[in-house]
Amino acid sequence: MQYEAVIGLEVHAQLLTQSKAFCGCSTAYGAPPNTQVCPVCLGLPGALPVLNAEAVRLAVLTALSLSCAIAGESRFARKNYFYPDLPKGYQISQYDEPFSGRGHLDIEVDGQTKRAGITRVHMEEDAGKSVHLDPYSVVDLNRSGVPLVEIVGEPDLRSGAEAAEYLRTLREVLLFVGVNDGNLEEGSFRCDANVSVRPLGEAKLGTRVELKNINSFRFVEKAIAHEIQRQTALVDRGGRVVQETRGYNADLGTTYSLRSKEGAQDYRYFPDPDLPPLRLDEAFVERARASLPELPAEKRRRFVEGLGLTPYAARVLTAHPKIAAFFEQAAEQHGNATKVANFIQSEVLRGVHTHGLDARFPVGPSQVAALLGLVDAGTISGKQAKEVYADIEGTDRGPAEVVARLGMQQVTDTGAVEAICRRVIEQSPKQAEQLRAGNTKLLGYLVGQVMKESKGAANPQLVNDLLKKLLGLV
């Protein structure tokens, strides 16, 4: 029997606020354990939560970026079960009355656009962090109470590869909107995957298994692929899939059982008596909508259709919002987006370091624009531009200053270049003969030899024209 997988993802994304969801404690990552806590975080008797307004704004931006409808009124609920790292013993979340729902995310799969539904985006608080040190465990409550959005996807995905692409696309959206730093290693962007299998063509869903705590897109893809294979083999043998939570062992490439999966009834949800309903008026929502930046898919489309970039280049240059901004500034100053895109991909990106929403560049966009302007003017060659670039990396020096200091000048004297071309043809008789016979690919080889002889100083277009003339190709 043939089976199909049904996959839905639940993504938890920390919101980039300076303070926690219901108190004034800092959300800064990396502080000494248990130093960013207060009576509210610690769940002490009598401590009352106060909702962070900035967390609400960022949550609404998240929902709007995923085309979700915003509810005028929603409620916070208490989700009750034992958390060793959430002292209250319950999590403040949203359950049956979330602030948003009915959205979607478009992903690219095998060159085709696929629309994956979003059930809802809701707000909640994060738990702390348990650190297991054999033979005991310790708890760091700095993360306890950090504001999250949970993005609950519809079961529209059918493979591990689709799930990984969904996560990459979602992470890009959140980065460009500026609500989350997308850091999987630090746990600020993480997902649980619900996986089931069913006979191909059947509408009824199979028993789902939840995969938790997977910290890379590659491992998500591998974990889901293994789980699909495990469930398919189990059902084929006449076995029954058990609803449970499983982890992923990256070393073995297998999933393993963690615990039986709780249902909604096990959490004993009820409205939080300490928090009033959250009311979002239309003006607030429209202000948030108006502040949304251009999203990655829209930016890529504009780069291709408006600036003439290849789809590949557009994707590379929209991998991070700061990289996209760097490219746009350089392209605006230079005027030729394709030349700027090619140079950034071949030279600049090697030295770019990103961490969350931050990025460090080895040069500035104005330096790139000025350097390519020297090439356009014929002052230096493309090869010389790479040498100049190496000299200005990590400095604020202007390319023209470096060219003057190094005494660089592109050779445009026809007689001097022709002499080099004749010498190269004499030294490469086989290639010259094959080129005359119609093997046009060898022209590039001869051009390369001339550029080598001239130490990159010869004008490439002049070299091309002279070689063709001397070989009788024109």
Write a short abstract of this structure.
This protein has 15 helices and 19 strands. With about 475 residues, it is of the alpha+beta class.
What does this structure look like?
It is a single chain. By secondary structure, the protein is of the alpha+beta class. It has three domains: 282 residues, no CATH class; 113 residues, no CATH class; 57 residues, Orthogonal Bundle (Arc Repressor Mutant, subunit A), CATH 1.10.10.410. Helix content is 37%, strand content 22%. The chain has 15 helices and 19 strands. It has an eight-stranded mixed β-sheet. The chain has a three-stranded antiparallel β-sheet with strand order 5-4-16, with no helix packed on it. The chain has a two-stranded antiparallel ribbon with strand order 2-6. A hairpin with a 4-residue loop joins strand 14 and strand 15. Helix 5 packs across helix 6, helix 9 runs antiparallel to helix 10 and helix 12 packs across helix 14. The termini are far apart. The mean pLDDT is 93.
